Amino acid sequence: MTTKKGIIIGGIAIIVAAFAYLLYGGLDKNIVYFLTPHELLAKGTKAVDVPVRLGGQVKPGSVKWNDTTLALHFIVTDGTSEIAVDSKGAPPQMFRDGMGVVVEGRYGANGTFNCTSLMVKHSNEYRPPKPGESVQEMQKTLIKGASS
Amino acid sequence: MNWRRAGIAAALVIPVVFVFSRGMKIDPREIPSPLPGNPAPPFALAVFAPGQPPLERPIGDTVRLADLRGRVVVLNFWASWCLACRDEHVGLTDVARGYAGKPVTFVGSLYQDTPGNGTQWIAEMGGQSYPSVNDPKARTAIDYGLYGVPETFFITAEGKIARKITGPAPPQVIRQIIDSLLTTTSSP
Amino acid sequence: MQSVNGLVGHGALLLALPFIALGIIAVPVAVNRGRRDWLEIGYGAVYANFALMSAAALAMISALVTHDFSVSYVAQVGSRETPLFYTIISLWGALEGSILFWAWVLSFYGMTVVALNKSRAGNLVPYAAMTLLCISLFFSILLVGPANPFHVVSPVPQNGPGPNPLLQNHILMAVHPPLLYLGYVGMSVPFAFAVGAVLSGEAENNDWIKVSRTWTMASWGFLSAAIIAGMWWSYEVLGWGGYWAWDPVENASFLPWLTATAFLHSAMVQERRGMLRVWNLNLVVGTFVLTILGTFLTRSGIISSVHAFTTGTIGYYFLAFITIVLVTGGVIVAGSSDKLRSKGKLDSAASRETVFLLNNLFLTAFMLTVLVGTLFPLVAEAMRGVKVSVGGPFFNRMSLPIIAALLFLMGVGPALPWKVASKAELRSKLIPPTAGALVLAAAALIAGIHDPYGILVFAFVGYAATANFREFSIGAAVRRRAHGESWPTAFLRLVEGNRRRYGGYIAHFGVFFVALGIAMSSTLRTEREATLQRGMTMQIAGRTLRLQDIWGREEPQRQVVGATLEIMNGNRVTGTLEPRMNFYRTQQEPVPTPDVRSGVLGDLYLNLMAFRPDGSNATIRAIYQPLVPWIWFGGGVVVFGAIVAGWPTARRRRVPAVVPVPAPPKPPAREPEYAA
To answer: Is C542 left (phi over 0), alpha (psi -120 to 50) or beta?
Structure first.
C-alpha cells in the first residue's frame, strides 16, 4: 500500500518536474526583452541577433519610406542613444516624428535593427486630427482625383 | 473541515497577491520612457489663461523652464476637447492652490487646441488656479513625447524629469510626488 | 443637475447594496436557526437584486439612446453621430458599462438559480444563493464606487467622443462581449454550488456536481461561442489577417474554457465511478478563479494588451476580491479534501476513465502553460524589474504537442467502455479509425503541409473523427436492427436517447473543424504586399488583383478612404473587394477595415495599408489562408453540440410514452443518462 502510494507520488513528481522543465526551457528561449536604445547598446554583443522589443521615439526627420519597394527606415531614440531601424511594409497611418514606437525584431551585427513588427504606442485618449494631417484635406484631393 | 490544510492553502495565496500588488504599481503601457531622470526639454511658452491669485501670471507673459530652476515644476498637458481632463481638473486646481507659497510651479499646457476654446473651458469648469500656456504646433508636447492628454510631468528643482503620469492624475498621487521632490531638494 | 436616467440608475445601484447585504445575512440565520421566513428574505433579496440591476441597466440604455451627456458614462462613450445600434451596444464598450452589464447578468443568473432550485431540500441552494449574493456585492460596490457609470457631468457637454472605433467597426462587437460575459458570469454558479456544498456539508453527494455540470455546460457553450466570435472579430477588424495572437485578453478567455472543458469530462467520472471528487471541486473553483483573474488582468491594466481597458483604482478592488476568492477557494478545497476521498478506483488502464484522466491531465497542463506564459511578464517585472514579453512561439511550441495529444484522446475515449476493455474490444474499436488517420494525413501531404505537427494534427483529427462517427453509425445501426427505423430516424432517436453523450460527440466534431482550419491556415498562409497605381495588378495564390479605384467618402461619424480591387481569374473578373480605412472624428489613428472574400476552401483577405493623399497609389496587403471559414463553422458546431447536450431535459420523460416501442421489461433503476 505505502510503496504503491510512493510510486504514484513519485510518478506525479516526475511528470510535474518534466513539465516544469519544458515550460522553463520554452520560456527561456522565447522571452523577448523590452529595451530602450540605450539599454540595447549597453548590452553589447549579447543583444545581437536575439529577439528584442525596442521602445523609444521616432527621431524627428529620420523617417524614409519608399512606397514602391516598401522599405521603411527610421531612427529610434531615447534621448541618449539612437538606433537605425530597417523595416518592410507600410508604416501605420499616423506614424510621425516624435511618436512613441515599439519595434520587435533583431539587432544586427551591422548596427541596424531589423524590425519584424512595428507598433505605434498611442494612448486611449482621443484628439482631433492635426491641421497638417487633416483627413478632410486628403479627402478633398482624393475625391477630386477619383472623379477626374 | 481540515483547518490545517485550509490554512496552508490560504497561505499559498500570499505570494500570488504579492506579485499582483507589485504589478499594480507598474504601468505596463508605459514604454520605459526615455525621459525620467533626463533633463527636461526646455520650453518658453506664452500664457493665455492667467490663473488666479496668488498663482496668477499676466496673459502674454512667457513661461520659461530655465527661469524655474530651484522650483519643482508640474507641467500638465490638457485640451478642451479632452474628457479625462475634466476628471482631473478640480483636483489639480485644488492641489496647486495648496502649494501656494512653496517652491512649486504649476503650468498647464494647451495641446492641439485654440486659446479661445481653452479660456471658455476654464470658465465652464469654474476656473483654474494656475496659469496655462499655449503650445503652438505642439512643439513642446512632441519634445516631451506626449502620448495623449492628459499627461502630467514632474520636473525637479535641478530641471530633471522625475515622473510622469499618463491619464488623469489623482490628487493624492500628485501631492505624494511633489512632497517627495520637495524633501529631496530642500534637505541639503 | 442629475437627469432622470442618472437618478434612477444611481438610485437603483445604491438601493441594491442593502438588499444584497440583507440577503447575505438572512441565509445563515435561516439555516442555523431553522427559520424558513428568513430564507424567504434571502431569496427575496436575490430577486430584488435582479430588479434593481435591471432598472440600472435600462436607465443606462435609456441615457445612451437619448444622448444624456449628464451621465458620465454616456459622456465617455456616446456621441450624437454614432448609429443607434452601436450606441446601444456601447453599454459594454467601456469599463463602467461592462461592469454594470456583468452585475446585471450575474443578478439574472442568481434569480434563475433560485427560481429553478428553491424546492430542493437541504441547505445547498440557500448557501449557493448566498455565495452568488456575495459576488454580486463585490460588483455592486464597484458600481457605486470606482466604476460608477452614473456620475454627474457638469457642465453637460454638448457631444461626446463616441465609442472606441475598434468597437464600432464591426457587428461582431455586438455579439462577442455579451457572449463572453454570459459565459464568464455563468461560471460563478458552479462555484456558488461548490461553496454551498461545502458549507452545507453536502459535498459528498453528487447533487451539486449535477447542477454544476448543467450550468458549466451552458456557460461553456457561451464561452466557446465568445472565443470563436472574438477570433472572428479580431480577424475581420484588426487587419493583420490572423485570429489568435496569444494576447493576454485572449488567454484570459481561454483559461477558464480549458478548466471548464476538463470539468465537463471529469464530472462524468465522478457521477459514474465516484472518483476525482476533490479534483472536480478544484476544477470548479479554479474555473471561477480564472474568470475573475482574467477580468482582473484585463480591467486593472496590470497587463498591457490591445484589448485592455483604461485603468483607475478599480484594479485594487479586484485585487482585494481576487484575494478573497483565492482564499475562499483554497480553504474549501483543501479543508474538505479529507472527506472527499475517492470511492471508486481505476480498474484498468484500458478504460474510459483512464482516457478522461489523461484528458484532464493534458487540459490542465495546457491551462498551466497558457497561465505561465501570460503571467510571466508580470512576475518578471515584479521580481526583477525587467520588462519582457513572452512571444507567440512559446505558446505555439508548448501547446502543439498538447493539442495533438488531446485530439488523439478524443478518438480513443469515446471508443472505450467504462471500467475495463477487453482485448477484442480494443482491437475492434481502436484499429478501424486508423484508416481515417491515414486518409487525412495523406490529404495534408497533398495539400502541401510539411510541418510535422500539421500532419500530426490532420492524422489525429482523421482518427478521432472516424472514431466519433463510428459511435453514431454503430449506435444507429443497432437501433435500425432493433426497431426497424430508417437511418435518419435511428440517428435522431439515438441522439435523443442520450443527448449528453452524443451532444458531446457533436462538439468533438466542431473541435475537429476548428483544428483543421487552424492547422491549414497557419501552415499554408501566403502574404504579399504591394503599392499599386490604378490599373496595376498583383498576384496572390494563383489569383490576380487589379486596383480599380481609390476613393474617399464622408459618413456622419467618420470619413472613409477605400480601395476597390478586382479579383481576376485569367481575364475574367470573379469579384471585387474593398478594403477601407476609417478615420473617426475623435481618434488619432485610422481604423483599418479589411475586406475578405470567403470560400469553402479559403479566404482572400485584403487590407489597405497606406495611400498617397492625392489618391495616386495605395499599398495593399493581400493574404490567402486556406480553410479559415472552417474555424467559424466548427465553432458553430461546438455550440450546437453544447445545446444538444445541455438543453433542459424536462420534456424528455414524455418521449418514451409517445414512441410506439415495445417496452423492455422495466429496468431496475432509471438508466443513467450517460450510459456507455
So the answer is: left
Domain annotation covers residue C279: no
Closest partner CB to B83 (pick from C76, C327, C378): C76
Neighbour subunits, A (≥3 Cβ pairs < 8 A): B, C
> Complex ipTM above 0.90?
no
What is the rounded CA–CA span in Å between residue C227 and residue C257?
A: 9
Q: Please tell me the distance in Å from B55's CA to the nearest CA on chain A.
A: 29
Burial class (CB in 10 A: 0-12, 13-18, 19+), B181: buried
Closest chain C CA to residue B86: C153
Range list of H helices, C313-386: 314-335, 352-384
| Residue in C628, C639, C635 with CA at minimum distance from that of residue C605 | C628
More confident residue, A28 or C186: C186
Domain with C601 in it: 526-629
Residue finishing a domain among C135, C163, C191: C163
Go through the domains of chain B in sequence order and give each one's CATH number: 29-186 (3.40.30.10)
Q: What single letter denotes the amino acid at residue B97? A: R
How many other C-beta atoms can be found within 10 angstroms of the C-beta atom of residue C305?
19
Is position C228 within any domain? no
- Tell me, what's the pLDDT at C303? 65
At B7, which helix (H) or strand (E)? helix B3-24
For residue C562, list its beta bridge partners.
C551, C580
Whole-number Å distance between alpha carbons of A143 and A131: 19
CB C605 within 8 A of CB C239: no
pLDDT > 90: what percent of chain C?
54
Q: Is residue C293 part of a domain?
A: no
Task: Give the model's pLDDT for residue C462.
Answer: 96
Report the CATH number at residue C620: 2.60.98
B24 to C586: CB separation less than 8 angstroms, yes or no: no
What is the reported pLDDT for C606? Answer: 94
Name chain B contacts of C313, Cβ cutoff 8 Å.
170
Contacting residues for C423 by C-beta, under 8 A, at least 6 apart: none
Tell if the CB–CB gap between C155 and B12 is shorter than 8 Å: no
Partners of C567 in the beta sheet? C545, C575
Please provide the size of chain B in residues. Answer: 188
Contact check, Cβ <8 Å, B8/C327 = no
The mean of the pLDDT values for chain C is: 87
Among candidates C387, C583, C614 on the partner chain, residue whose Cβ is nearest the Cβ of A34? C387
* Rg of the Cα atoms in chain A: 24
Please report which confidence band the pLDDT of residue B27 belongs to, taking 50, 70 and 90 as the band edges: low
Single residue among C591, C609, C629 that ends a domain in this structure: C629
Count structural domains, chain C.
2
Name which of C343, C344, C288, C349 is nearest C321 in CA terms: C288
E strand segments, C358-464: 388-390
**pTM for the whole structure:** 0.82
Q: Which of C529, C559, C585 sits opposite A139 (nearest CB)?
A: C559
Nearest-Å Rg of the Cα atoms of chain B is 20
Please name the residues between 152 and 181 in chain B that touch chain A, using a CB distance below 8 Å. Answer: 166-167
Q: Using a CB-CB distance cutoff of 8 angstroms, which residues of chain A are in contact with residue C391? A: 30-32, 51
Per DSSP bridges, beta strands C580-584 and C572-577 are unpaired
CA distance C57 to C543: 50
Is C553 domain-assigned? Answer: yes
- Do residues C333 and C278 make contact, with C-beta atoms less than 8 angstroms apart? yes
The closest of C580, C575, C576 to C590, measured between CA atoms, is: C580
- Give the list of residues 6+ apart from residue C539 with CB closer than 8 angstroms, or none: C528, C545
Chain centroid to Cα A120, Å, comes to 9
Which of B17, B24, B113, B122 would you mutate first to test chain C, the one with the most C CBs within 10 A?
A: B24
Highest-scoring range by mean pLDDT, A129-143, B144-158, C504-518: C504-518
Contacts with A31 from chain C: Cβ below 8 Å:
376, 380, 388-391, 394
